[in-house]
Amino acid sequence: MSKPTPKPGIMDIDPYVGGLHTVEGVDEVVVLASNEGPLGASPLAIEAYEREAQRLHLYPDGGAEELRAAIGQRFGLDPARIVCGAGSDEIISLLISAYAGVGDEVLYSAHGFLMYPINAKSAGATPVAAPETNLTANVDALLDAVTDRTKMLFLANPNNPTGSYLPADELRRLREGLPDHVLMVIDAAYAEYVSRNDYVSGAELVEKHDNVVMTRTFSKAFGLAAVRLGWAYCPAEVADVLNRVRNPFNVTAPAQAAGIAAVGDLSHTDAAIAHNDEWLPKFTAELQNLGYEVAPSVGNFVLVRFDTPETARSAYDYLLSQGVIGRMMGGYGLPESLRFTIGLESELKRVIDSLAAHRKSL
Ligand SMILES: Cc1ncc(COP(=O)(O)O)c(C=O)c1O
């Protein structure tokens, strides 16, 4: 008997498993699994979101005009070249489905964000992972992996889950080494947190070249993961392509309203960044004091290495039993590691106390 079958590639996809938010039987959980902002959303964004409740019967502005103008103003970018999406996940998916298909290759670095290979397979394209060095993207390895079939290159900068980044000169060298027909997507989801002098988000490269796109999100430093809001800064031609393939009302009205308010509330993101600047190094040092190897991170999370995949799993389970939710990293080829978001001071203390207790029990 015949039956409907999905396109080739779809059944090769391992579904993305998001971080947990609850633990059965535990009331006060510490959620550090998805790199969400521990300070929550800006109060102005929450107010704006609530105001939209009176207008739920109306379609949103399909062009997200006011939101694009607000983003453009905050980041000094041309709103005409900004395209908004339901999270940067949607932008990644739209880009891949518009630019890659059967027979094409989508290149990314070995421990890069999982949505790149997932979306590549979904489009019928072949994801190709280039090896990394010390959990950091390697420009030479990426360029060596380019073939005639390479259509796109994705680089999360900084990368999730490793927390590493490529400095501006390496980013430029990567762009320069790519054939012009390869679309380079710089996923700068964690850009707000990076305070290194040699870091750039990629907006300048977008302005200089026809084959560079930068994606950003409201889910991290802006604390708006629930509303699903992200954006891309694109060459005009790529913006035109995205505007053809996206759904007409892909960003909800409450998301647009919250985004406009959030982008105007500089003090809230300043506070989120200051919190991270303080607790990223402190939490890292405390983990190191317990004897763990911690990958140097410039994001709002850390990758912690355990002796074996089994120890990582047992630590994860023990923490869960204590109501502390981290994230296992087997899907990223890092089964011996767990990732933790930089949460509130009290939350990080619970991680440290639980890990110390777990260590003792071994
Ligand atoms: C590197 C990277 N890119 C993109 C995303 C997707 O973010 P969102 O769809 O919430 O904008 C994430 C989320 O964790 C991420 O880590």
Question: Describe it for me?
Answer:
There is one protein chain. With about 350 residues, this protein is an alpha/beta fold. It has 2 domains: about 130 residues, Aspartate Aminotransferase, domain 1, CATH 3.90.1150; about 220 residues, Aspartate Aminotransferase, domain 2. About 40% of the residues lie in helices and about 15% in strands. It contains 12 helices and 15 strands. A 7-stranded mixed beta sheet has the order 2-10-9-8-7-3-4, sandwiched between helices. The longest helix is centred in the C-terminal third of the chain and has 24 residues. The N and C termini lie far apart (about 55 Å). Bound molecules: pyridoxal-5'-phosphate. Pyridoxal-5'-phosphate binds next to α3. The site of pyridoxal-5'-phosphate (PLP) has 13 residues, from α3.
Read across the widest sheet, the strand sequence of neighbours is 2-10-9-8-7-3-4
Q: Give the N-terminus to C-terminus distance in angstroms.
A: 54 Å
Report the structural category.
alpha/beta
The residue ranges in which pLDDT falls below 50 over 5 or more consecutive positions are none
Question: At the first level of CATH, what is the class of the largest domain?
Answer: Alpha Beta
Q: Helical segment tally?
A: 12
Order of helices and strands: EHHEHEHEEEHEHEHEEHHHEEHEEEH
Going by CATH, the homologous superfamily of the largest domain would be: Type I PLP-dependent aspartate aminotransferase-like (Major domain)
Q: What small molecules does the structure contain?
A: pyridoxal-5'-phosphate
Residue-averaged pLDDT: 97
Shape: globular
Number of domains in the coordinates? Answer: 2
Proportion of β residues? 15-25%
What is the CATH architecture assignment of the largest domain? Answer: 3-Layer(aba) Sandwich
The residue fraction in helices comes out at 25-40%
- Major sheet summary line: 7 strands, mixed
